[in-house]
């Protein structure tokens, strides 16, 4: 059962939307909430632009003087703003939580902290990224691939209530994400639509059969759909996104890659396309 939720914060609108979702899930699951702001240690050093006589770049140099004061003041301001956002998010909610600040390499620190959590919640993209790029940020992609935990990716202003959509191809990632997906669906008491792409309907139904039994044993109402035919990666992503729009889905649960016997349905490009345009949070595991 999910008893520990890690919410990664960086001040972006997406991370604050993720915090709201993390608080809601912590309350519904009666789980502990750990809100974490990682101060990027790279903001407190300067990088030499030269190489030494052997052609190697010297180690970064810690900031000093006014530059250090400005960096520390900015970090303190961000910490204060995020703590205020955290307090607002938990106000009046039955949540056991803590707000922590650590300094380190962001991705490395979050991956390490994720090992003490049952669920990681973070925004689709972090602060400071080029607004013209719609896709998930590098920290989000790193967490999906390396956290070894289910990762809930939250867009800014997305739909957060409604049935759950599970694009199912039998791959390792989607098989692993089914367990936390079922727990979340049970907590929300929502139905689950399982969508499979197969060359023949019989292949898709055979692939779905064990999942039918699994959902039934957990009391989850499942709507099983098979789409026949061949499809491109972009077409597969459109299929998922179209189903999410049709269902007014509140969550998509999927694996990040496909290793199944049918044609590849969920690969890196499909993952990115869904994360970029999903109208709701996406729960992922590799």
Looking at this protein, list some descriptive labels:
286 residues; alpha/beta; 8 helices; 12 strands
Helical segment count: 8
Please state how the strands of the largest beta sheet are arranged side by side: 5-2-1-6-7-12-11-8-9-10
Low-confidence stretches: 258-267
Radius of gyration equals 21 Å
Question: What fraction, in percent, of the residue positions are helical?
Answer: 40-55%
N-end to C-end Cα span: 20 Å
What shape does the CA trace take? Answer: globular
What's the story with the biggest beta sheet? 10 strands, mixed
Report the strand count. Answer: 12
**β-sheet strand percentage:** 15-25%
Name the structural class: alpha/beta
Q: Mean of the pLDDT scores?
A: 89
Order of helices and strands: EHEEEHEHEHEEHEHEHEHE
How are the SSEs placed, and which strands pair?
Elements: E1 4-9, H1 13-29, E2 32-40, E3 45-46, E4 61-62, H2 65-90, E5 96-104, H3 106-114, E6 119-123, H4 138-146, E7 151-154, E8 164-167, H5 172-188, E9 192-198, H6 201-217, E10 222-228, H7 233-247, E11 251-255, H8 268-277, E12 282-285
Parallel strand pairs: 1-2, 1-6, 2-5, 6-7, 8-9, 8-11, 9-10, 11-12
Antiparallel strand pairs: 3-4, 7-12
């Amino acid at each position: 059962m999910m008893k520990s939720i890690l919410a990664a914060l960086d001040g972006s609108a997406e991370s604050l939307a993720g915090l709201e979702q993390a608080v809601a899930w912590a309350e519904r699951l009666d789980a502990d909430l750990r809100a974490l702001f990682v101060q990027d240690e790279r903001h407190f050093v300067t990088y030499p632009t030269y190489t030494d006589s052997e052609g190697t770049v010297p180690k970064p140099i810690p900031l000093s003087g006014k530059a250090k004061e400005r960096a520390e003041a900015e970090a303190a301001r961000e910490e204060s703003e995020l703590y205020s956002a955290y307090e607002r998010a938990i106000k009046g909610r039955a949540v056991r939580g803590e707000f922590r600040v650590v300094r380190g390499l962001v991705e490395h620190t979050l991956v390490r902290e994720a090992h003490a959590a049952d669920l990681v919640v973070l925004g689709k993209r972090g602060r400071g990224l080029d607004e013209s790029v719609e896709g998930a940020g590098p920290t989000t992609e790193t967490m999906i691939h390396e956290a070894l935990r289910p990762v809930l990716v939250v867009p800014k202003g997305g739909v957060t209530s409604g049935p759950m959509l599970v694009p199912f191809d039998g791959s390792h990632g989607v098989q692993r994400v089914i367990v936390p997906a079922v727990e979340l669906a049970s907590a929300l008491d929502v139905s689950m639509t399982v969508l499979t792409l197969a060359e023949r309907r019989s292949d898709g139904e055979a692939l779905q059969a064990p999942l039918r039994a699994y959902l039934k044993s957990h009391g989850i109402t499942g709507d099983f759909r098979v789409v026949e035919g061949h499809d491109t990666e972009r077409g597969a992503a459109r299929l998922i996104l179209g189903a999410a729009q049709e269902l007014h889905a509140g969550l998509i649960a999927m694996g990040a890659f496909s290793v199944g016997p049918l044609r590849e349905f969920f690969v890196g490009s499909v993952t990115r396309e869904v994360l970029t345009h999903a109208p709701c949070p996406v729960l992922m595991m590799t």
